[in-house]
Amino acid sequence: MSSGEAFDFQIGRIIGIITKSGAKVVGLQFPEGFKRRGPDISLKIEEATGARTIISGNPCFGACDIDAALVDSVELMFHFGHAELDDTKLCENIYFIETRSNTNVSAVTKKALLKLRGQRIGLITTVQHVHKLNEVQEILEQGGKTCVIGEGDSKIAYPGQVLGCNFSVVRVKDQVECDEYLYLGSGEFHPLGVSLATKKRVVIADPFTDEVREAGQSRILRQRSAVIAKSLDATIFGILVSTKNGQNRMELALFLKELAKKHDMDAHILSMDMITPEQLLQFKVDAFVNTACPRLAVDEVGRFHAPMLTPQEFAIVLGENVWEELVFDEILGD
Hints:
Layout (H helix, E strand, L loop, with lengths): L10 H11 L3 E5 L8 H12 L2 E4 L12 H6 L2 E5 L13 E4 L8 H10 L4 E6 L7 H10 L3 E3 L31 E5 L4 H10 L3 E5 L4 E4 L3 H14 L4 E7 L7 H13 L3 E7 L4 H4 L6 E4 L4 H5 L8 E2 L1 H7 L17
């Protein structure tokens, strides 16, 4: 990785794999934040190997979101920005390029130390920064804190790693109790999920902006409350199931359909690959229930023609659960 490169795209490793295999047609899949780097990386690979590259143009929001059609039409696929899931370990022609960050985390960690109130601090991050957690731990322990880096379930590749659909590193059985958590990274979704899962304070240390802030639940809770309120009079529900590897929760959808039947509600299971507002326009339902990627209901709120509930929120609408016990939806492993 060059000194000026913020992320390690492992170009040398990719070239070596292609050269050794003799592959002539190679697929490249990038998450949304890295797609702009695709043409440059493609050119470097083609010039070094002579292989033809094909870049996936489909949306990609996680390791569960593999472009299956492209995988079938290339000899090798390189998937950037995510760690391998247990669901994808049988895909022998897919290589996961985790795209680790080269950003300095020392300064923002020292700032975060001044904001932490508890003694025992749980450290969490995404795969881009997971290799920096030991450095963060050292800084915090020099400042008198005790650090915990939890082990997740089978969907989690590294200690301390959180996914947008899995916060098991903070809730695995026999996990050491923490006073609060420090999230290393940008964005709000992951730390908010941890905050709701643990009911603990989460401090965000963003190494890209050098900003330290607290994950605030109020905005997201107001948003989710509004979605639930709009669904209280609903009698016809569309239960969404994704066919994507790692997102397909048909068993959960069938359970929710039976739950709706128990409450004299109509529920219809809608199966599709990519779930978009346009695809759902033709379905005349009062509300949707999302069993696909948990972020869909939260990140895309307001874009669908009917309210989009999580399974947990659906249980609240039916009276099976209460608002005070609301947590983010998760796709957990073993």
